[in-house]
Amino acid sequence: MKKDLYLMRHGQTLFNVRRKIQGWCDSPLTELGKQQALKAKEYLKDISFDHYYSSTSERCCDTIELIIGDHYYKRLKGLKERNFGLFEGESEDLNPNFDDFGYDDLFPHYGGERREDVQKRLKETLTDVMDKEDHQTVLALSHAGACMCFLSTVIDPGEVLKSGGLTNCCILHFTFENDTFKFVGIIRP
Fold it and tell me: How far is Cα 180 from Cα 148, in angstroms, rounded to an integer?
């Protein structure tokens, strides 16, 4: 049976505004981030979700709580952002230029996670969630880097980057059937 997964990025945070690398660090939602969550709530109101999940990060929990109100959701460490090691909390100006070399040439050497490890963590976590018999339509809150790592296990994430990127509170829609995820599209409320 085909199931639906809506994988959503959290709303804008203070670190997003200040151009800081967040990773496993956390910062609160801005007023705009809260408005983005409420706009996403309006978009999602006609979808009958049977389960909700969130990264353990405050920015994700605050976003999902604005969307679902008092409904129960489960926090999963497997949905956390990529760990950027010693670069966490530092300026985004320290991010490597992709024309020179990629994240995996830098962050793992300073205590950060490798892309393959994040991909594996997200794929295992989301497969475990969607394999549950009573999980037909699921909303899961995560982070830009984690979402892009997961997306790269399904399609070339360049498609999303070319169409406007993974903006705050955007939603990646996947179907899940026979232990396989298929990308349906991106929703930017």
Answer: 17
SS3 content of the chain, % helix, strand, coil (to 5): 40, 20, 40
Cα separation, 168 vs 143, in Å, equals 9
Tens digit of each residue's pLDDT (9 = 90 or more) over 123-138:
999 999 999 999 999 9
Is the pTM for the entire model greater than 0.85?
yes
The catalytic residue positions are 10, 81
- The alpha helices in 106-183, defined as continuous H runs, are 115-131, 144-151, 158-162
Instruction: Find the farthest-apart pair of alpha carbons in the chain and give their distance in angstroms, rounded.
Output: 47
CA–CA separation, 14 vs 16, rounded Å? 5
Chain centroid to CA 182: how far?
16
